[in-house]
Design a protein that fits this description.
Largest sheet: none
Number of strands: 0
Helix content: over 70%
Shape: globular
Distance between the termini: 25 Å
Radius of gyration: 21 Å
Number of helices: 16
Strand content: under 5%
């Protein structure tokens, strides 16, 4: 490497930019709708177009970084991000704003390529531990981003959010110019070989495991507010606190994973992370099926979903990136795109089901189905890893 390997904080910041760009501007949407004189549906395209572009970019940016290296792709994305943020700031009509906002989706590259950089630098359990550390640090961002965005909009107006985006992008670009060394040694010689990755069944087991784990979280976020309001009469502030239960659980699980993975191995943590929420949600399902009316068991059970995801998702990500280490960028991109697509589909299905019956039993049933499918993927990953390596990943360093 011509420059030193990046510090872990650099990878955390790259991942944070992805979350902040998605969430921080949300409290400003009503003011932006009024400023542009459009409907809620039109303003909502700033979210849907962003997510569509992010899904497509994840499939493209990973292979590009395998071919040309991590550093030039990340630096190019950050430069484009600054330009898109400035255009959002200066936009005087909704068309230009939506185009520029869609361009901000290049921020997604920071998250997927940060994972690839970790896999370039570390192997096995060490890579899983580093990814768990990043995940535990990043669990705070979804909670803080809307709060910061709301404060900015209240104090300075909605355009201040995009000033902040531009400054964050520029600052991170300057930091990466100094700190981000190239970690993919064969990057500039690597050909596009994504087909070899897509034919690996172990890769798809890890991808399915991670996507279904994230999907369970999307089901909860989509359905819990309806159940909390319609069945338990909870207000917006109470619902907000209740939704944070999974995030708190995730922080705990990811922290435990970072501490334990090198001792017990990723497969054991993955299987534990899938079994724990099945037990927790299963107990709550039985309680409400028997006519229970107390709200606490619902959100106590969903804490186990967060803990389970914290224990398993970073380890599944490390496993997917390790199937073909030379194609870690491509693996990270496919992994992210599948998780985003499945999450959107499960959100739609949750809305359709709970629109007819917004009950704890219906919500828990949907979450249990996705969790049991994730457990199937976890078992397949454990079996196929043993077949392909000759030993269990739980026992190898």
């Amino acid at each position: 490497m011509s420059r030193p390997a990046p510090h872990l904080v650099t990878l955390v910041l790259l991942t944070a930019l992805t979350v902040l760009t998605l969430n921080m501007f949300l409290p400003a949407l009503p003011a932006m709708r009024e400023a542009f004189g459009v409907s809620e549906a039109v303003m909502g395209r700033s979210i849907s177009l962003y997510m569509l572009a992010a899904a497509v970019l994840q499939l493209v940016l990973g292979p590009l970084s395998d071919r040309f290296g991590r550093r030039p792709v990340i630096l190019g994305l950050l430069a484009l991000y600054v330009v898109a943020s400035v255009l959002c700031l200066l936009a005087e009509n909704i068309t230009l704003f939506l185009i520029a906002r869609t361009g901000q989706a290049v921020a997604v590259g920071g998250g997927i390529l940060a994972s690839a950089v970790v896999r370039d630098m570390y192997e096995g359990r060490v890579a899983a531990a580093k990814l768990s550390l990043i995940a535990s640090a990043m669990a705070v961002a979804p909670m803080l981003a809307p709060m910061v965005g709301g404060l900015l909009e209240t104090a300075f107006g909605w355009r201040s959010v995009f000033v902040t985006y531009a400054l964050l992008g520029a600052g991170l670009l300057l930091w990466c110019l100094r700190d981000l060394g190239e970690t993919h040694e064969g990057g500039r010689r690597q050909r596009f070989q994504i087909g070899a990755l897509l034919r690996a069944r172990l890769f798809w087991a890890y991808v399915g495991l991670q996507a279904l784990g994230v999907g369970t979280f999307y089901v909860f976020l989509t359905g819990a507010p309806f159940v909390a309001a319609d069945v338990f009469g909870m207000g917006p502030a109470q619902i907000g606190i209740a939704l944070g239960t999974t995030t708190a659980g995730f922080m705990l699980g990811a922290g435990l994973s970072a501490r334990l993975v090198q001792r017990v191995g990723p497969i054991r943590l993955i299987l534990t992370g899938r079994a724990l929420p099945i037990a927790g949600l299963g107990a709550a399902f039985l309680y409400y099926s028997a006519g229970g009316i107390w709200v606490v068991p619902l959100f106590l059970s969903t804490v186990t979903v967060g803990i389970g995801n914290g224990l398993s998702l970073a380890n599944a990500n490390a496993g997917a990136l390790s199937v073909r280490p030379d194609l870690a960028g491509s693996a990270s991109g496919v992994n992210g795109a599948v998780a985003l697509g499945l999450g959107a589909a499960l959100s739609w299905a949750t809305t359709a089901v709970l629109g007819a019956s917004a009950t704890p039993v219906a919500l828990l049933s949907l979450m249990l189905i996705t969790l049991m499918l994730a457990m199937v993927m976890a078992v397949l990953a454990a079996l196929w890893d043993r077949e392909e390596t000759g030993v269990s990943n739980a026992k190898t360093p």
